[in-house]
Design goal:
The protein is an alpha+beta fold. Helices cover 46% and strands 14% of the residues. A 4-stranded mixed β-sheet has the order 1-4-5-8. The structure holds flavin-adenine dinucleotide.
């Protein structure tokens, strides 16, 4: 197996490095800018040079580069090493923008894509309901046409970031007489609209990242629908594919591994650095094996993409691999920390990114790893998808499936 990228790509890497050396970190007066403003300025330059927002047309604020998985990989690697800002990592950029580009109306792309990728507006995802999670198509929130508006009534739950969001993309039942998957539409809602009540839910990490969202006679314009009426399920599949791919990136696992190795070097077990402990070493090697397999599956997926081949089961396994690894890493970190891990204050956030070496971060990563295995489709449901669609095994006998 040849894992080298080839001369042309390595020449491109030099270009990327030259750009980064000249532009990040910001220098002179620019270095004094508030962090977010500095990141925004850098992103503008990176977009104009073709390094960020590569698959987004110029007219919507992207850099419109032809698809090139290897160049994309080189950019991720070099920006990662330089700790330079990539595209904002919000629900809007990762899920809504690709969905609008695939299925949105022209005016929707013009209105929403640019401000979203520039980080000027934030989105939340209104899919789950108290009785509809894995069986999402059973959702009950109702949308009825009244003149030029949809009128929405119902309740969403686990809505991440709703308290900070400017808009929500959500699934509502608009065709109550159709079969369950065919009765759903994909609507956009301005979160400032009258009738929306957002109530934060406190998580075991101590923070309140997600919320209940109550919708009482909430009006949204008739044309704020993505895809056709009753085709929201199809549209939502596009969004979910992007959500799972973003959760299933091996770069995050490699970052976690290096944090774990530093922890094992710096903490002691029975007076010895933890990394000398045979049990810790065995588990570290096992985890590294999982991570390398995940990384090489990613390479295989990239090379299939380059040949326009369907990555099939490899893509389906991404999210499951990544969340399993995140949990195993955090579990070993907690074992190394021992009693110290129990009394630590919690770091903010869901713990989905790289965990630094602080005890608080590891505890947060541990708790967050349980949540992220549920978000975007639970691990068990992922296993069903892999078994049924990837391996062709017989379908699960869940009672509601054929409705
Ligand atoms: C951190 C986090 C962030 C989230 N953010 C959002 C958000 O922004 N917007 C949003 O809409 N939702 C969000 N969610 C909700 C998430 O999508 C749901 O929690 C998820 O789809 C599971 O649904 P549920 O919680 O109703 O569990 P259920 O579907 O009730 O599942 C309960 C258990 O049963 C198992 N199970 C269910 N069906 C099957 C089956 N057919 N075969 C095998 N096992 C099965 C599941 O694996 C699970 O273990 C978030 C969740 C988390 C944890």
């Amino acid at each position: 197996m040849d894992l080298s990228y080839g001369q042309e790509t390595e020449d491109y890497r030099k270009e990327v490095k030259t750009f980064l050396t000249a532009n990040w970190p910001l220098a002179g007066d620019e270095a004094k800018m508030p962090r977010e403003d500095g990141a925004r300025l850098f992103r503008e330059r990176a977009i104009s040079e073709g390094y960020l927002c590569r698959n987004i047309p110029k007219q919507y604020g992207g850099s419109e580069q032809s698809a090139d998985a290897l160049r994309g990989q080189v950019i991720r690697e070099e920006f990662g090493k330089a700790r330079a800002p990539m595209e904002p990592r919000g629900i809007g950029t990762m899920m809504l923008v690709p969905t609008l580009l695939d299925r949105g109306e022209e005016w929707q792309k013009e209105k929403f894509v640019g401000p979203t990728i520039r980080g000027e507006i934030n989105w939340c995802q209104g899919y789950s309901e108290p009785g509809s999670g894995s069986d999402l198509a059973s959702l009950m929130t109702k949308g009825e046409l009244d003149g030029d508006d949809w009128v929405i009534n119902g309740q969403k739950i686990w809505t991440s970031g709703a308290q900070r969001a400017d808009y929500m993309f959500c699934l509502v039942r608009t065709e109550p007489d159709e079969k369950k998957h065919a009765g759903i539409s994909y609507l956009l809602i301005d979160m400032k609209t009258k009738g929306i009540d957002v109530r934060p839910l406190r998580q075991m990490t101590g923070s309140s990242e997600f919320n209940e969202v109550f919708l009482n006679d909430v009006r949204t314009p008739k044309d704020w629908i993505v895809g056709k009426r009753g085709e929201g399920w199809l549209v939502s599949r596009t969004t979910l594919k992007h959500e799972r791919n973003s959760i299933g990136n091996a770069a995050q696992s490699l970052g976690l591994l290096s944090g774990l190795v530093s922890l094992a070097k710096s903490r002691k077990i029975d007076g010895q650095p933890a990394i000398e402990d045979p049990g810790v070493r065995r588990e570290l090697v096992r985890i590294e094996g999982y991570i390398r397999a995940h990384q090489y599956s990613g390479f295989l997926q990239t090379s299939k993409g380059l040949k326009d081949e369907n990555a099939g089961i490899i893509a389906m396994m991404n999210k499951l691999n990544s969340t399993n690894i995140g949990h195993k890493v955090a579990h070993l970190a907690m074992e190394i920390l021992g009693d110290d891990g129990l009394g630590a204050p919690l770091a903010a956030g869901l713990g989905t990114g790289t965990a630094g070496s602080s005890t608080a971060n590891w505890l947060s990563q541990y708790m967050g790893s349980l949540g992220i295995a549920i978000a975007g489709g639970t691990a068990n449901v992922q296993r069903n998808v892999i078994a049924e669609r990837g391996l062709g095994l017989p379908r699960d006998m869940a009672a509601n499936r054929s409705k």
